[in-house]
Amino acid sequence: MTHGQSSSAKAAVIDGKAVAAEITAKVAVETGRLIEAGGLAPGLAVVLVGDDAASQVYVGAKGRKASELGFHSVQHTLPLSTSEAEVLAIVEQLNRDPAIHGILVQLPLPRHIDTSKVIEAIDPAKDVDGFHPINVGRLAIGERDRALVSCTPAGCLLLVKRVLGDDLAGKDALVIGRSNIVGKPMAQLLLQESCTVTVAHSRSRDLPELARKADIIVAAVGRPEMVRGDWVKPGAVIIDVGMNRIPAPERGEGKTRLVGDVAYDEAAAVASAITPVPGGVGPMTIAMLMANTLTAACRAAGKPEPKF
């Protein structure tokens, strides 16, 4: 669950890499079982439009992980000039392909393509990112067993449970950030765990005071080191989704370093457990994508789906 504690921090470090490795090991075993039971290997198709460098890295990592786990892995790499109609045609082709159980269109898409239209074109049963309005709606009404849940919040919840156990009832949870990808689904997941959930954002009044009441803080706002140590309730669990690159002149001219949305050293001196950046939430996102693809394959084959 955790590893080492630095001399300056008393908080346990929540090792997302280790938990993600456990999840993907289970996916590999369950994939073998599904194939033995007469099901198809889980099929994941990734669609990448344009030449965004970060997107290329992410897509490459997803494809490699899928292949490692015994999945059928497909990648459609399309030029920046690809039209919206062409992207929609590929999505439709993948919707009809019985060997594909998960379709992931890498975001952001080029400006001339309507992202909502593309997401809504994906078959909800193959929407392994959990972004389709039907999956979002199923999560909101408590039908998580019929939904595919957005990967980052699903991973965050597992990390919380590694520290606090499966029973989160009655805990005060603060989600900072209200994005459709992380903040909103995170709040829904915590509500379904019977937490008392506050969703805060850039217009919230007295954010530090809201944070000081929280047993669980999920920071997903995209502002470097915004959450300070004196915001943290002693013993709180902190999940830092932020991934911000800031100047690091101490490393040399023009150098940068990655930080989260939480001032790590300050918060770690007060919290009971905290995710590092990098190495916390990031690895969980790809692990949960693989878990969602396996889940979609099990549902398509009418086989029992594993629990993560």
Q: Enumerate how many helices there are, as a single number.
A: 10
Radius of gyration: 20 Å
Total domain units: 2
N→C terminal distance: 15 Å
Order of neighbouring strands in the sheet with most strands: 1-2-12-9-8-6-7
The appropriate CATH architecture of the largest domain is: 3-Layer(aba) Sandwich
Helix content: 25-40%
Number of strands: 12
CATH topology title of the largest domain? Rossmann fold
Strand content: 15-25%
Given this structure, which CATH class of the largest domain is correct? Answer: Alpha Beta
Major sheet, described briefly? Answer: 7 strands, mixed
> Average pLDDT, to the nearest integer?
95
Q: Name the poorly predicted regions.
A: 1-7
The CATH superfamily of the largest domain appears as: NAD(P)-binding Rossmann-like Domain
Shape designation: globular
Class by helix and strand content? alpha/beta
Order of helices and strands: EEHEHEHEHHHEHEHEEEEHEH
